[in-house]
């Protein structure tokens, strides 16, 4: 993966519009408070459990903070454009996308930098299944691809490392984590996929291409990594902003300086 590919990878994720955003002034039951000034290992254990409790709750959706259901997550459009040079050149869009699996998120580690308040989170998703309509023109590995139709991707055992850049702010009588950017690194333990109606439905080509992509899932996943990384970053930033723009940091960290 060259640097150029990463720079050229661009995605646009359009999530469903939020209903209302409103600051919660009472501590919600799904937010467990930790003390950042406690010894490191005690704090990390507490915040890991706290984020796990949050992720046990929020996949059902939290309308009062404008957060849609996350499992299944409905995404109207994902646009993907990645220029030449590397193993992937694609111009694709995915529409009417359904993503299943965020409800089983396992938080393996969460810590908060005591100076910058940046978050470091390590999580595992046993399974992530994406269904949608695709419209694709491009090349993955050595294969030219063209088509539009239904598709699915089924990944297992995703390990995701997330660093969230945070600015601590004060307004409305509370502290807030302003999450400005997320940086994602991830690996997957397996991938099955299917693209229907490839090459406008020339069946023999469609079947042999799908078989080839599945047999070579590891380099396929590797080559799609910059695109998938950007997509996961866009989705996570949207989710984290809805959570932390509306739930005061004081409910997560009980010992912030006034
Ligand atoms: C970690 O936190 C959990 C939940 O608060 C608690 O039950 C457990 O005893 C803690 N473990 C350690 C080693 O402190
Ligand atoms: C990508 O595809 C869309 C829709 O077919 C088209 O409008 C756009 O010009 C394409 N972009 C590039 C860079 O080929
Ligand atoms: C996506 O869903 C909308 C609303 O259900 C529908 O109008 C549209 O035709 C669908 N698009 C595709 C590509 O299936
Ligand atoms: C978060 O910080 C960015 C960059 O400083 C700023 O543009 C934005 O308005 C802030 N958002 C909120 C909700 O305070």
From TrEMBL:
<keyword id="KW-0732">Signal</keyword>
<protein>
    <recommendedName>
        <fullName>Protein takeout</fullName>
    </recommendedName>
</protein>
<comment type="similarity">
    <text>Belongs to the TO family.</text>
</comment>
<dbReference type="GO" id="GO:0007623">
    <property type="term" value="P:circadian rhythm"/>
</dbReference>
<dbReference type="GO" id="GO:0005615">
    <property type="term" value="C:extracellular space"/>
</dbReference>
<dbReference type="InterPro" id="IPR038606">
    <property type="entry name" value="To_sf"/>
</dbReference>
<dbReference type="Pfam" id="PF06585">
    <property type="entry name" value="JHBP"/>
</dbReference>
<feature type="signal peptide">
    <location>
        <begin position="1"/>
        <end position="22"/>
    </location>
</feature>
<dbReference type="InterPro" id="IPR010562">
    <property type="entry name" value="Haemolymph_juvenile_hormone-bd"/>
</dbReference>
<keyword id="KW-0090">Biological rhythms</keyword>
